[in-house]
Specification:
Distance between the termini: 137 Å
CATH topology of the largest domain: Helix Hairpins
Mean pLDDT: 75
CATH architecture of the largest domain: Orthogonal Bundle
Strand order of the largest sheet: 4-3-2-1-5
Number of domains: 4
Order of helices and strands: HHHHHHHHEEEEEEHEEH
Strand content: 15-25%
Radius of gyration: 36 Å
Low-confidence stretches: 69-74, 318-329
CATH class of the largest domain: Mainly Alpha
Structural class: alpha+beta
Number of helices: 10
Number of strands: 8
Helix content: 40-55%
Shape: elongated
């Protein structure tokens, strides 16, 4: 009994406090006050982040679905250059939508949780007035001292949003020509033709010449004898062009039926005819080589001889303005 009395005496204040209605009311008010508000803010921030992220992903999926095309063989059916450019640029819309969607999700996450923290701090007794004032002063100071960095970030944002170039493109950005390896908000990493890696600040990119966007043009100049029948040559070119256009092995290279552009130049010994073809990005050299090979075989079968053009070397007799001569002439 003595031991029980001691225990009851020791727990007396706690038991009495537990039985005190005011203590329960105080505990309830505290739980339903600051902790509940903080929980509501965190839950609301989480829900807002999930909903907005879902909306962004849905928009990205719809945009990508509209921009997706079947394959290059269908694109070759487009004859007009404007239609072909629009069709090819739709391929890049999918990549651009994914990049912009990722950027928007990051911005949404940072914004939502920054607002949530600013709402929670006053509940914990932290006065955010001086904090916001200090942040404003620091922001102004950083704005003056980091104008270049802000310019780089804004330029990078527009580069990504406008899809001026992407990873894998061959571009000329002024100081360097190379392949794009990485595009960040602040800088772009390029590798030039000699293998040197360049880091170019986005704010310093004033112009962009993209050699990989949409389509490129393959140009082939072939000399024929001066007295050769041009109508016959045109028929051979069109036959080769039709054969290449219908060949599925060129689906990844050719974006249009090669055309006979006409006579490029005329000299006393030869007539140079030009053949052009729309090619996939970075494939114009391969297409030009293929056209030369196919035309050579077609000329051989038709008995058309390509003349040998001899050019005098500088410093040799006759190099000062004389006309070219044939071997043995």
């Amino acid at each position: 009994m003595d031991r029980d009395a001691v225990v009851i005496a020791a727990l007396g204040p706690t038991v009495s406090a537990a039985k005190d209605p005011e203590w329960w009311e105080t505990a309830r008010d505290w739980v339903l006050g600051i902790p509940l508000r903080i929980a509501i803010i965190l839950i609301a921030a989480l829900i807002a982040q999930l909903v907005l992220s879902w909306v962004i992903r849905r928009v990205v999926r719809r945009t990508s679905k509209r921009a997706r095309v079947e394959r290059l063989s269908q694109q070759r059916k487009v004859a007009r250059t404007a239609e072909l450019s629009a069709l090819l640029l739709n391929q890049r819309t999918e990549q651009r939508a994914a990049a912009v969607g990722s950027l928007l999700r990051s911005v949404v996450t940072i914004t939502i949780w920054t607002i949530a923290v600013l709402m929670i701090l006053p509940l914990l007794g932290v006065d955010i007035g001086p904090l916001l004032a200090s942040a404003g002063v620091i922001g102004v100071a950083l704005g003056f001292g980091a104008q270049t960095m802000v310019k780089d970030y804004l330029s990078g944002l527009f580069l990504i949003a406008e899809d001026q170039f992407g990873v894998g493109d061959i571009v000329d950005v002024g100081p360097v020509i190379g392949t794009v390896e990485d595009v960040q908000l602040r800088y772009t990493r390029l590798r030039d033709l000699s293998g040197v890696v360049w880091y170019v600040r986005n704010g310093e990119i004033l112009r962009v010449a993209n050699r990989s966007q949409g389509w490129t043009l393959a140009i082939v100049d072939i000399p024929i004898a001066y007295d050769e029948d041009l109508d016959r040559v045109r028929d051979l070119v069109e036959a080769v062009a039709t054969d290449m256009d219908e060949d599925p092995s060129y689906d990844d290279l050719l974006l249009g039926r090669p055309t006979f552009a006409g006579v490029e130049s005329v000299s006393g010994e030869a007539v140079v005819v030009r053949i052009t073809a729309k090619a996939a990005p970075e494939q114009q050299i391969a297409v030009a080589r293929t056209i030369r090979e196919r035309m050579k075989l077609a000329f051989d079968r038709a008995g058309i001889v390509v003349p040998v053009l001899m050019r005098p070397m500088p410093g040799t007799p006759g190099s000062g303005g004389t006309t070219p001569s044939r071997p043995g002439g």
